[in-house]
Amino acid sequence: MKTCPRFAALRKEYEREISFLSAHSERHAGRPSAKSSAKYAASMKARMARALSGHVGRCPECG
User: Fold this and answer.
1) What proportion of the chain, given as a percentage, has pLDDT over 90?
2) Gyration radius of the chain's alpha carbons
3) Of 6, 19, 43, 45, which is most buried, counting CB atoms within 10 Å of its CB?
4) Residues 7, 44 contacting (CB under 8 angstroms)
5) Per-residue pLDDT for 2 more than 90?
6) In whole angstroms, what is the distance from residue 23 CA to residue 1 CA?
7) Could you tell me the superkingdom of the organism this chain comes from (predicted)?
8) Which residues are within 8 A (CB) of 39 and not within 5 positions of it... i.e. 6 or more apart?
9) pLDDT on residue 6
């Protein structure tokens, strides 16, 4: 599937945030902040999927 530069930028931004949150969760395992970061990373993945599928539906270059 061919995608536009905006799709790639949006995906890269979400993946960066998810990796930061996951790394924080691993680094601080056993603490309440780690659990919070892990939950936020999981919800961020769902948000990324929703945002990217919405982009594909609206973008004439991607869809």
Assistant:
1) 90
2) 14
3) 45
4) no
5) no
6) 30
7) Bacteria
8) none
9) 94
